[in-house]
Amino acid sequence: MLTRKMADIALGLRAVRDKLAAASARRGPELAHFEPRLVAVSKTKPAALVIEAYEAGQRHFGENYVNELLEKGHNPDILSKCKDIRWHFIGHLQSNKINKVLAVPNLYIVETVHSKKLATGLDNAWPKFRKTDESLLKVMVQINTSGEEEKNGCESSEASNLVKHVIDNCKNLEFTGIMTIGKYGYDPSTGPNPDFLSLRDLHNKICEELSLDRKTVELSMGMSSDYEHAIELGSTNVRVGSSIFGHRPKKGE
Ligand SMILES: *Cc1c(COP(=O)(O)O)cnc(C)c1O
Fold this sequence. Notes:
Layout: H1 6-25, E1 37-41, H2 47-55, E2 60-63, H3 66-73, H4 76-81, E3 86-89, H5 98-102, E4 107-113, H6 116-125, E5 137-142, H7 159-169, E6 173-179, H8 194-209, E7 218-220, H9 227-232, E8 237-240, H10 242-245
Parallel strand pairs: 1-2, 1-8, 2-3, 3-4, 4-5, 5-6, 6-7
Helix pairs in contact: 1-2
Bound molecules: pyridoxal-5'-phosphate.
Protein backbone atom coordinates (compact mmCIF):
# COMPACT_ATOMS: atom_id res chain seq x y z
CA MET A 1 0.00 0.00 0.00
CA LEU A 2 1.39 3.40 -0.95
CA THR A 3 0.95 6.59 1.00
CA ARG A 4 -2.64 6.79 2.10
CA LYS A 5 -4.97 9.38 0.71
CA MET A 6 -6.12 12.08 3.06
CA ALA A 7 -9.41 10.50 4.09
CA ASP A 8 -7.68 7.22 4.79
CA ILE A 9 -5.50 8.74 7.49
CA ALA A 10 -8.42 9.04 9.88
CA LEU A 11 -9.32 5.41 9.18
CA GLY A 12 -5.73 4.23 9.65
CA LEU A 13 -5.51 6.13 12.91
CA ARG A 14 -8.76 4.73 14.19
CA ALA A 15 -7.70 1.17 13.41
CA VAL A 16 -4.40 1.66 15.26
CA ARG A 17 -6.13 3.29 18.24
CA ASP A 18 -8.60 0.41 18.44
CA LYS A 19 -5.81 -2.18 18.44
CA LEU A 20 -3.88 -0.14 20.96
CA ALA A 21 -6.89 -0.07 23.29
CA ALA A 22 -7.47 -3.81 22.88
CA ALA A 23 -3.81 -4.55 23.64
CA SER A 24 -3.98 -2.29 26.70
CA ALA A 25 -6.99 -4.20 27.94
CA ARG A 26 -5.06 -7.48 27.72
CA ARG A 27 -2.35 -6.25 30.12
CA GLY A 28 -2.07 -7.50 33.67
CA PRO A 29 -3.21 -5.36 36.64
CA GLU A 30 0.39 -4.24 37.29
CA LEU A 31 0.26 -2.23 34.06
CA ALA A 32 -3.33 -1.04 34.22
CA HIS A 33 -2.51 2.35 35.77
CA PHE A 34 -1.62 4.00 32.44
CA GLU A 35 -2.71 4.20 28.83
CA PRO A 36 0.10 3.90 26.30
CA ARG A 37 0.75 7.00 24.22
CA LEU A 38 0.54 6.77 20.44
CA VAL A 39 3.25 8.66 18.57
CA ALA A 40 2.41 8.98 14.87
CA VAL A 41 5.68 8.73 12.96
CA SER A 42 5.29 11.00 9.93
CA LYS A 43 8.76 10.64 8.40
CA THR A 44 8.86 10.99 4.59
CA LYS A 45 5.18 12.05 4.61
CA PRO A 46 4.03 15.55 3.67
CA ALA A 47 2.79 18.25 6.04
CA ALA A 48 -0.76 17.86 4.67
CA LEU A 49 -0.96 14.35 6.14
CA VAL A 50 0.30 15.56 9.50
CA ILE A 51 -2.51 18.12 9.51
CA GLU A 52 -5.00 15.45 8.50
CA ALA A 53 -3.95 13.24 11.40
CA TYR A 54 -4.01 16.20 13.78
CA GLU A 55 -7.54 17.02 12.70
CA ALA A 56 -8.48 13.41 13.40
CA GLY A 57 -7.36 13.97 16.99
CA GLN A 58 -3.71 12.92 16.95
CA ARG A 59 -1.38 15.17 18.98
CA HIS A 60 1.99 13.37 19.32
CA PHE A 61 4.11 13.05 16.18
CA GLY A 62 7.58 11.62 15.65
CA GLU A 63 10.34 12.43 13.17
CA ASN A 64 13.73 10.77 12.91
CA TYR A 65 15.53 13.00 10.40
CA VAL A 66 16.62 16.41 11.65
CA ASN A 67 15.87 18.14 8.35
CA GLU A 68 12.35 16.77 8.18
CA LEU A 69 11.64 17.75 11.76
CA LEU A 70 12.81 21.28 10.96
CA GLU A 71 10.74 21.45 7.79
CA LYS A 72 7.51 20.23 9.36
CA GLY A 73 8.12 21.87 12.75
CA HIS A 74 8.43 25.28 11.07
CA ASN A 75 5.79 24.66 8.39
CA PRO A 76 3.38 27.66 8.49
CA ASP A 77 0.26 25.52 7.86
CA ILE A 78 1.16 23.12 10.64
CA LEU A 79 1.94 26.05 12.94
CA SER A 80 -1.41 27.70 12.29
CA LYS A 81 -3.61 24.59 12.19
CA CYS A 82 -1.91 22.36 14.77
CA LYS A 83 -1.32 24.64 17.74
CA ASP A 84 -1.16 21.80 20.24
CA ILE A 85 1.09 19.48 18.24
CA ARG A 86 3.87 17.71 20.18
CA TRP A 87 6.97 16.66 18.30
CA HIS A 88 9.08 13.71 19.39
CA PHE A 89 12.57 13.57 17.95
CA ILE A 90 13.34 9.85 17.53
CA GLY A 91 16.41 9.83 15.31
CA HIS A 92 20.16 10.09 15.64
CA LEU A 93 21.13 13.53 16.93
CA GLN A 94 24.61 14.85 16.29
CA SER A 95 25.89 17.55 18.61
CA ASN A 96 26.19 20.08 15.79
CA LYS A 97 22.42 19.85 15.16
CA ILE A 98 21.32 20.40 18.77
CA ASN A 99 20.47 24.07 18.34
CA LYS A 100 18.37 23.43 15.26
CA VAL A 101 16.33 20.72 16.94
CA LEU A 102 15.80 22.71 20.14
CA ALA A 103 14.59 25.71 18.14
CA VAL A 104 11.65 23.74 16.72
CA PRO A 105 8.41 25.20 18.07
CA ASN A 106 6.36 22.56 19.90
CA LEU A 107 9.28 20.19 20.42
CA TYR A 108 7.97 17.88 23.14
CA ILE A 109 10.78 15.42 23.77
CA VAL A 110 14.09 14.07 22.49
CA GLU A 111 13.76 10.27 22.82
CA THR A 112 17.23 9.45 21.61
CA VAL A 113 19.89 10.58 24.06
CA HIS A 114 22.64 8.02 23.55
CA SER A 115 25.70 9.56 25.23
CA LYS A 116 26.80 11.79 28.09
CA LYS A 117 28.19 14.21 25.56
CA LEU A 118 24.82 14.62 23.87
CA ALA A 119 23.02 14.93 27.22
CA THR A 120 25.43 17.63 28.35
CA GLY A 121 25.11 19.41 24.99
CA LEU A 122 21.31 19.47 25.26
CA ASP A 123 21.52 20.57 28.88
CA ASN A 124 23.81 23.49 28.06
CA ALA A 125 21.75 24.61 25.09
CA TRP A 126 18.21 24.37 26.48
CA PRO A 127 18.21 27.71 28.43
CA LYS A 128 18.59 29.56 25.10
CA PHE A 129 15.41 28.00 23.72
CA ARG A 130 12.93 27.38 26.51
CA LYS A 131 9.86 29.56 26.61
CA THR A 132 9.63 29.89 30.39
CA ASP A 133 12.47 30.19 32.88
CA GLU A 134 12.00 26.93 34.67
CA SER A 135 10.84 24.59 31.93
CA LEU A 136 12.88 21.42 31.50
CA LEU A 137 13.55 19.57 28.27
CA LYS A 138 12.07 16.08 28.38
CA VAL A 139 14.46 13.37 27.28
CA MET A 140 14.64 9.61 27.08
CA VAL A 141 17.81 7.56 27.01
CA GLN A 142 18.10 5.36 23.92
CA ILE A 143 19.54 1.91 24.51
CA ASN A 144 20.91 -0.41 21.85
CA THR A 145 19.31 -3.54 23.29
CA SER A 146 20.07 -5.65 20.22
CA GLY A 147 23.76 -4.77 20.30
CA GLU A 148 23.76 -4.35 16.53
CA GLU A 149 26.57 -2.15 15.30
CA GLU A 150 24.42 -0.08 12.99
CA LYS A 151 21.84 0.72 15.67
CA ASN A 152 22.26 3.83 17.77
CA GLY A 153 21.88 4.00 21.51
CA CYS A 154 24.12 3.42 24.46
CA GLU A 155 25.14 -0.10 25.37
CA SER A 156 22.90 -1.85 27.87
CA SER A 157 25.72 -2.03 30.41
CA GLU A 158 26.12 1.78 30.24
CA ALA A 159 22.43 2.65 30.52
CA SER A 160 22.20 3.12 34.26
CA ASN A 161 25.29 5.29 34.24
CA LEU A 162 23.93 7.51 31.49
CA VAL A 163 20.58 7.91 33.22
CA LYS A 164 22.42 8.86 36.42
CA HIS A 165 24.38 11.47 34.49
CA VAL A 166 21.17 13.01 33.15
CA ILE A 167 19.54 13.08 36.57
CA ASP A 168 22.54 14.27 38.57
CA ASN A 169 24.34 16.60 36.18
CA CYS A 170 21.82 17.92 33.66
CA LYS A 171 19.64 20.29 35.61
CA ASN A 172 17.80 21.57 32.51
CA LEU A 173 16.74 18.08 31.43
CA GLU A 174 13.86 15.98 32.70
CA PHE A 175 14.60 12.27 32.45
CA THR A 176 11.33 10.59 31.46
CA GLY A 177 12.25 7.10 30.30
CA ILE A 178 14.18 4.67 28.14
CA MET A 179 13.77 3.83 24.47
CA THR A 180 14.83 1.08 22.10
CA ILE A 181 14.39 0.30 18.42
CA GLY A 182 15.51 -3.33 18.52
CA LYS A 183 16.03 -5.80 15.71
CA TYR A 184 13.81 -5.33 12.68
CA GLY A 185 11.57 -8.10 11.51
CA TYR A 186 11.23 -10.06 14.75
CA ASP A 187 8.25 -12.41 14.57
CA PRO A 188 6.27 -12.10 17.86
CA SER A 189 4.55 -15.45 17.24
CA THR A 190 7.88 -17.09 18.15
CA GLY A 191 7.73 -15.66 21.70
CA PRO A 192 8.30 -12.36 23.46
CA ASN A 193 10.63 -9.99 21.58
CA PRO A 194 14.03 -10.20 23.29
CA ASP A 195 14.64 -6.46 22.80
CA PHE A 196 11.43 -5.61 24.64
CA LEU A 197 12.33 -8.02 27.43
CA SER A 198 15.79 -6.43 27.65
CA LEU A 199 14.33 -2.94 27.91
CA ARG A 200 11.97 -4.14 30.62
CA ASP A 201 14.85 -5.70 32.56
CA LEU A 202 16.86 -2.50 32.22
CA HIS A 203 13.87 -0.56 33.48
CA ASN A 204 13.87 -2.70 36.62
CA LYS A 205 17.60 -2.43 37.06
CA ILE A 206 17.78 1.34 36.55
CA CYS A 207 14.85 2.03 38.88
CA GLU A 208 16.40 -0.16 41.55
CA GLU A 209 19.95 1.18 41.25
CA LEU A 210 18.90 4.83 41.15
CA SER A 211 15.93 4.50 43.55
CA LEU A 212 13.43 5.79 40.99
CA ASP A 213 9.69 5.28 41.20
CA ARG A 214 9.00 2.69 38.47
CA LYS A 215 5.74 4.34 37.52
CA THR A 216 7.53 7.56 36.57
CA VAL A 217 9.95 5.94 34.12
CA GLU A 218 8.55 5.31 30.65
CA LEU A 219 9.36 2.61 28.12
CA SER A 220 9.34 3.67 24.47
CA MET A 221 9.17 0.51 22.37
CA GLY A 222 7.02 -0.91 19.59
CA MET A 223 6.44 0.13 15.95
CA SER A 224 3.89 -0.80 13.25
CA SER A 225 4.78 -4.48 13.18
CA ASP A 226 4.77 -5.03 16.92
CA TYR A 227 3.18 -2.21 18.91
CA GLU A 228 0.42 -4.41 20.34
CA HIS A 229 3.00 -6.93 21.52
CA ALA A 230 5.11 -4.10 23.00
CA ILE A 231 2.10 -2.75 24.89
CA GLU A 232 1.41 -6.15 26.39
CA LEU A 233 5.02 -6.15 27.62
CA GLY A 234 4.68 -2.74 29.28
CA SER A 235 5.40 -0.12 26.62
CA THR A 236 4.13 3.34 27.58
CA ASN A 237 4.96 4.97 24.22
CA VAL A 238 4.59 3.29 20.83
CA ARG A 239 5.98 4.87 17.66
CA VAL A 240 3.79 3.92 14.71
CA GLY A 241 4.38 5.11 11.16
CA SER A 242 3.35 2.96 8.22
CA SER A 243 0.22 1.51 9.85
CA ILE A 244 -1.15 5.05 10.03
CA PHE A 245 0.33 6.80 7.01
CA GLY A 246 0.91 3.91 4.64
CA HIS A 247 3.98 2.22 3.25
CA ARG A 248 7.18 4.23 2.84
CA PRO A 249 8.85 3.42 -0.46
CA LYS A 250 12.50 2.53 -0.06
CA LYS A 251 15.03 4.32 -2.21
CA GLY A 252 14.65 3.16 -5.79
CA GLU A 253 11.28 1.46 -5.20
C1 LIG B 1 10.39 4.90 11.32
C2 LIG B 1 10.44 4.71 12.78
C3 LIG B 1 9.34 4.19 13.48
C4 LIG B 1 8.04 3.78 12.82
O1 LIG B 1 8.21 2.71 11.96
P1 LIG B 1 6.94 1.94 11.30
O2 LIG B 1 7.44 0.59 11.08
O3 LIG B 1 6.62 2.68 10.07
O4 LIG B 1 5.85 2.00 12.29
C5 LIG B 1 9.47 4.06 14.85
N1 LIG B 1 10.60 4.40 15.51
C6 LIG B 1 11.66 4.91 14.87
C7 LIG B 1 12.86 5.27 15.66
C8 LIG B 1 11.61 5.07 13.49
O5 LIG B 1 12.70 5.56 12.87
